[in-house]
Amino acid sequence: MSKRAPVKKNDFIEEATFEDLTHDGNGVTKVEGYPLFVPDALPEEKGTVKVVKASKGYGFGKLMERTKESPKRQDPPCPIYHECGGCQIQHLTYEGQLEFKEKHVREVMTRIGKLDNIKVHPTLGMEEPWRYRNKAQVPVGEKDGRFVAGFYQKRSHEIIDMDKCIVQFEKNDEVIQHVKAICERLGIQPYDEANHRGTLRHIMTRTAYETGEVMVVLVTRTAKLPHKEKIVEELVKSIDGLKSVIQNVNSKKTNVIMGDETHVLWGQEVIYDYIGNIKFAISARSFYQVNPEQTRVLYEKALEYADLNGEETVIDAYCGIGTISLFLAQKAKKVYGVEIVPQAIDDAKNNAKLNEMNNVEFEVGPAEVVIPNWYEQGIQADVLVVDPPRKGCDEALLNTILSMRPKKVVYVSCNPSTLARDLRILEDGGYETLEVQPVDMFPQTMHVECVSQLILKG
Ligand code: SAH
Predict the structure, then answer these.
(1) Does residue 74 have a known ligand-binding role?
(2) Taking the CA of residue 35 as centre, how many other CA atoms within 13 Å lie in the half-sphere pointing to its CB?
(3) Is 177 annotated as a binding residue?
(4) What distance in angstroms lies between residue 21's CA and the mean position of ligand 1's atoms?
(5) Rounded CA separation 177/182 (Å)
(6) pLDDT value for 3
(7) Chain centre to alpha carbon of residue 40
(8) Is residue 286 lining ligand 1, measured as CB closer than 6 Å?
(9) In angstroms, what CA-CA distances link 44 with 15, 19, 116?
(10) 366 pocket-lining for ligand 1 (C-beta < 6 Å)
(11) Of 284, 354, 413, 443, whose Cβ has the fewest other Cβ atoms within 10 Å?
(12) Structural domain ending residue among the three candidates 68, 85, 110
């Protein structure tokens, strides 16, 4: 990268050609190798760009005129798309999104993983890439004396009121509107972030895809919530399928949504949902995949890649509430799951009981510590599944895989870059990556999930 920017603020670049998209959906054009990030510009497009900011290694520009339009451009269907920032690529057709994600995965496999000939399949997308999210969480505040709940405006903490979000289940929109209206009517004070005052901070709702059960979580600054009984009474009256009303107390000055204290105000502590044939209990703070339709696609692919015949011992690292573990346990002799969050392991154990599955065991702890311990105790996996957070697998865990030498590794990943890095380490240690399958869990956004299959060579 050049030392000095080849452009300066207010320069115009004629016929700038866009070649890529960044993770926040900006188009990328290059001037003598120097990247300029430009909102609302797509790969293959051309236009005139005005430089708005020129830092040392990169700059930002504004598209003044588009002279060539991508055939994959579309009008973003959401009216608040440009202010919100929750979605980044609504201006790209869905077909274009799926192609872009596949290309991106292939590109990082080559660049970061040095895996040139690897088989990357076309992205598995949704038939209807809208209204797919089972969980909504909206910040609450006050604006011009009015109670508002919606989303933070891009790059700010200003809350914009919102009545629908077209990637959410319609039910979630409806629930949020009811909660908002009820709390406003009963005079519940919205949270004032600047002064750390007020009561209601966030409204969270989750609707189970298969059962229709609804949970509402009111995140409050104080344990005291005025008109508790009345709120519950009105929620029960207005929301069909409501099974659980929860209060979570978060008294800290923080961006983290939920606090440590949780009370059931009404109904069940959990709601129930199914993925395939397996039933799951989901509590307010459980991590549960947000796109149920595609979760099933992803898990089925993982199961296909694990290729089980009923005789195998399987380890599921980073198991969360045991969703993948239980999915695999249907076809394996024994599954061991490990996860760092104790509450998630409690959920996982309960979920195993709920499904009367006796061939699973769960343990709390870092995968990179627990799995080496298991290995020392003589637990030898035939298949090892990993589904780590964005930063990928810990090196100690990768080294354990290389000593344990399971015949197959199934790697589920929400970050292609760390996936590529880790695949390279496993390849160097004797594994071969047979294929990578991108799955679109988050249509309209830049995120892409992948599942890949590796086998031990020789
Ligand atoms: N497989 C699950 C969860 C995947 S998300 C599902 O599909 O629902 C990744 C999980 O890894 C999270 O639950 C997170 O708490 C857990 N985690 C993060 N670091 C970990 C570590 N070092 N060891 C074990 N689990 C970890």
Answers:
(1) no
(2) 11
(3) no
(4) 28
(5) 9
(6) 62
(7) 23
(8) no
(9) 12, 6, 24
(10) yes
(11) 354
(12) 68
CATH of the domain at 266: 2.40.50.1070
CB-based burial of residue 379 (10 Å sphere; 0-12 exposed, 13-18 middle, 19+ buried)? Answer: middle
Active site residues: 414
d(CA 98, CA 92): 10
For residues 256 and 277, give the distance between their C-alpha atoms in angstroms, rounded to a whole number.
Answer: 33
pLDDT of residue 399: 96
Q: What CA dihedral angle connects 368, 398, 102 and 123, to 10 degrees? A: -60
Q: Facing residues of 336 across strands?
A: 315, 361
**123, 203: one domain:** no
pLDDT of the residue at 2: 45
What CATH number is attached to the domain comprising 19?
2.40.50.140
- Spatial contact of 435 and 417, defined as CB atoms under 8 Å apart: no
Evaluate: CB of 367 within 6 angstroms of ligand 1: yes
Q: How many CB atoms lie within 10 A of CB 456?
A: 16
Shared-domain flag, residues 398 and 323 = yes
Instruction: Give 257's contacts (C-beta < 8 A, 6+ positions apart).
Output: 137, 201, 202, 204, 219, 250
Domain range enclosing 316:
102-127+291-456
CATH of the domain at 350: 3.40.50.150
Q: How many domains does the chain have?
A: 3
CA 296 / ligand 1 centre spacing (Å): 18
Q: Region 352-380: what's the mean pLDDT?
A: 96
pLDDT in tens, 106-128: 999 999 999 998 999 999 999 99
Residues 6+ apart with CB under 8 A from 86: 151, 165, 167, 445
Burial of 50 from C-beta contacts in 10 A (0-12 / 13-18 / 19+): middle
Q: Which residue is it, tokens 């991590």?
A: 287
* Overall average pLDDT of the 142-170 stretch: 91
C-alpha distances out from residue 246 to 22, 225, 405, Å:
38, 12, 45
**Residues in contact with 225: Cβ distance below 8 Å, sequence separation at least 6, in sequence order:** 188, 199, 218, 231, 247
Q: Which amino acid is at 178?
A: H
Indicate if ligand 1 lies below 6 Å from the C-beta of 357: no
